[in-house]
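Example A, followed by Example B.
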Amino acid sequence: MERMRRLAEKHPRYGYRRIWALLRREGWSINRKRVHRLWPSCEARLAEGLKVTRAQQRKRSRGSSENSCSIRRAKSPNHVWTWDFIHDRTMVRGPLKLLSLVDEYTRECLALEVSGSITAEDAIAVLRRQFLIRGAPACIRSDNGPEFIAKAIQRWLGSASVETLYVAPGSPWENGYAEAFHSRLRDEFLNIEAFASVKEAQALANMWRRDYNQERPHSSLGYLTPVEFRERCGQDATTVESDQTRPDREPEGSRYEWYRN
């Protein structure tokens, strides 16, 4: 019974037949019927640590290619935001989890949160701060990560009348603006800096985000910075974009040429 208990703790999804097979492989002279008789009832299994846990029901993906950045395009500042996670480590191998929030139209990094772990409630707190500063976007795009599809986030965004655009699973290119931002974040920041702690990583991330928004020329914006491009759009950071002011279609040519003309 002691050996059965230890095997069941190690393999909680195994039933009595598989435990019997493991005992036989170890050299125990015991038949399957005896293992079955010794296998306690459900309540006793719980007390003895032999309870077989239920298989977790997989969450169904909510994503669709109809929500990709090439189909549901951002038409103005504060129209579509995108967010995603990227991971790194401190010098002592402690985990770092970074949550980025980007305005797809202006490419401005609205938030770059760093922590050892970030829950759905933490993500809501990041959004709440940005909503107070900039107002709510029309849509927010993401993959199907558990934090993003959490019911708490869906309810909170629904109460703010923000549409959630979940891209198709296994299709990171459909959330291309987030992927492109993370490529620059990895190349220009995470691969260069060494972080002694989460606190230091957050401080350096804040500095890098300011430089990215205010100093770094962006090629797709005609080598304007994201802040300069937003200002040329005539969009104040605290102004809430309304449906009436959103253009119905993307201007021909690149955005910066259209605004320059």
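Example B, a separate protein, is given below in the same form.
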Amino acid sequence: MADHIVVPRERHGIELDEFLCLLYPLLNKGFLRGQIRDGKILLDGRKTMPSTHLRTDQVVSIDIDESPDKLPQAPVSPRIEIDVLYEDEEVLVVDKPAGLPVEPERWQRGSACLSGALLDLALRRSELEPDSPAEASAGLNFRPRLVHRIDKGTSGVVLVAKTLEAERRLREAFSTRDIHKSYLALVEGEYPLAAGEFETIDLPIGPDRRKSGRMTVAEKGGKESTTRVSVDHAFHGFTLLRCEPLTGRTHQIRVHLAFTGFSLAVDPVYGRRDSLALSEIKRNYRVKRGRKESPLIDRLTLHAHRLEFPDSEGTVHEVEAPLPKDFNRVLKQLAKVRPAH
């Protein structure tokens, strides 16, 4: 693969590796950075670094000795429609459906994921073909960058930067707690808080040494983890909680709630169910003979509901993701058959 690309005026100041990612959206960024370091990609005929800032009319020369079909590819998930809740020149806020992982799963690299769906969205907006290995003549208008993550089984808001500068600014805003997230969590049990009250769960979290991929409260060696909890709606035997994680540990809300005795109503890892059926909450309910009961919900009862973030001018934006149909269905049934005392 060989190309000589003149840097256009609108790309002045961009870093070389970022420029290449826009030109070749389907190629892996790590691979492109390695090619720069190996001298396979030159700037004005000279070897340079991936972070070099480009100037208008400089020439980027690409000479990669690989056929397009053998080049490392970035994940693309074509034809998965992701709802965009908010957009400006710097960011996207999208509504991730439950069951869709944020990044490619380790043992299923070719399966759908949010990052791939976002790249597909950017490709379609730039009128590029998702089955083409490279598009140096046009390139992307923007390359989506995930600023944070939510679990595969969790639905709701995810913040995506459209530029490298926005990504760096938003990551800093997360570290200084200037970005606020609010989740709705349906838990088993009646949480002992009155309306308008809240409490803070402040328990360190670390990896569970007994089971890979699982986290636990770890007094020794755990990282500071804080979650603010209040009651959104009470039912008989269940509670809809509003949870605000003040830190961003893996599985933080799930671990904190389970440790305090109020695990998610559906959570096969930290709770006791992998689904919730009407027969479990409605007294004397019987499935018709010959029929198999379908669950009301068969994924985590956790929804990333609200996100507040500042833009580059300091204006704070608040974006909400509506409750998905399965989550709404459970709440309506609980209100009907399990009203609070």
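On Example B: The chain has six helices and 15 strands.
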